[in-house]
Amino acid sequence: MSLNTTAVRIKVTLKDVKPEVMRRLVVPLTLRLDRLHLTLQEAFGWTNSHLFEFFAGEVRWGIPDPHNDYGHQPMDARKARLCDIVRETGAKTIHYLYDFGDSWDHVIKLEKWFENTTTEGLPFLLEAAGRCPPEDVGGAPGYAEYLEAIGDPTHPEHEHMRLWGPERFDPNVVDRKALEAAVNALSDTWKPRRRATRTK
């Protein structure tokens, strides 16, 4: 990464989940971590209903909780950018943990750097494979059990799980256009507003 680096291509894979759930995106290097969180929520199809943290090595970033008495407080994700993680830790792989109960671990690999390119229209979804698991399914082990139950009509939990989860859930079918539109909407929201010029 040089001083001229403006964007990075990332490959994000949901750990311990089969079939593979993966997203490839291009994001600005100066993207704030709270916005990277929102980008990943939209790219995967999560509902942003739980807490999150990014971590690289021993350093963690999230939303500090003033009522947390355990002593562990992450650095504020609203005040840190992706480039800060790279500069401070030298990491080429970052983890994004979503939902501390289900513990969805997203492995973020920094694949390719772009120099002197415009960041307009970013973040941008390049590739999507695999459907995101349903929220509150119980993490990777619960998701495996869920897929087993809905895939086997003789399974004792088949009917219950089929009714509990999304209708006709297929882990291999991903609505890329919907995910792309959701990510694109973020880039429109975060565009710097131009000041109106007064006419005399």
TrEMBL record:
InterPro entries: MM3350-like_sf (IPR024047), Plasmid_pRiA4b_Orf3-like (IPR012912). It comes from the Bacteria. Pfam families: PRiA4_ORF3. Residues 7-177 form the Plasmid pRiA4b Orf3-like domain. PANTHER family: LEXA REPRESSOR-RELATED (PTHR41878), TNPR PROTEIN (PTHR41878:SF1). This is Plasmid pRiA4b ORF-3 family protein.
